[in-house]
Write a structure and sequence with these properties.
Layout (H helix, E strand, L loop, with lengths): L1 E6 L4 H12 L2 E7 L2 H15 L4 E5 L5 H15 L4 E4 L11 H23 L8 E6 L12 H17 L2 H7 L1 E8 L20 H9 L8 H14 L5 E4 L5 E4 L11
Parallel strand pairs: 1-2, 1-4, 2-3, 4-5, 5-6, 6-7
Antiparallel strand pairs: 7-8
Helix pairs in contact: 1-2, 1-8, 3-4, 4-5
Amino acid sequence: MKVAIVTGGSSGIGNHLCQRLAAQNYKVAILDVEEKDGLDLCNNLNQTYGSGSCIFCKCDVSDETSFKKSFEMTIKEWGKIDILVNNAGLWDDSPEGWRKSIDVNVKGIISGSLLAIQYMGMNHGGNGGIVLNVASIVAFPVCPVLPIYSSTKAAILKFTRDMGTEHQYQLHGIKFITMCPHATGGSKLFRNSEKKFIFNDENFVKPFYAGKFGVLQSVDNVAQGIMESLHKGENGSVWMIEDEKGARKIEIPEIKVKEFV
């Protein structure tokens, strides 16, 4: 029996990932702030794959107490956790929303990763496992129209690569993997997008709509790519998923600096 936690699991990528995990006989804990959607999905999975296949935990990943309770609920239900997918994310670069974006995208992923070590790490009596953190392809290029969101995704990428080192693995036995999807349709991320820019001047936001963000891949395509990277991904590996081409590993060149001691 394998047990997986998926944050942001009630809709979009998370919803499809939970379905794919349950179909492969994983026990799935759906974590989300959206209670109705989460409970509906949980009920559907339990009906399809058998009672006890899934639980729902109402969780705001930016609230560490809430996040910790969800880990404890999962352990109480199944006795262990094998996989954490930190999928919950928020895009809102607006003056009103950017702080919450940092709380969810950066603090939430760091909090989840450290809780995974606490509850899954061999140094804490666990069996090890996998943490997959969902970043974005915007972590790599300069993104003048998404400076805060893209910076949070760059932070996720850096943090996860640092956690996915042999030095860390020898301590806790957890593989850390990063997935960087291209723009994805069918998620709540792009809803009310006109209100989410750092500046709402029409000339400022034109490049966003004129660029590749107009070509959106399906959420299920990303979920499939996450499943592939969970099965194939090495510790510290970085993956990209776009269109229907499947997931592929990204090789990031090293820049030689003085070794940290």
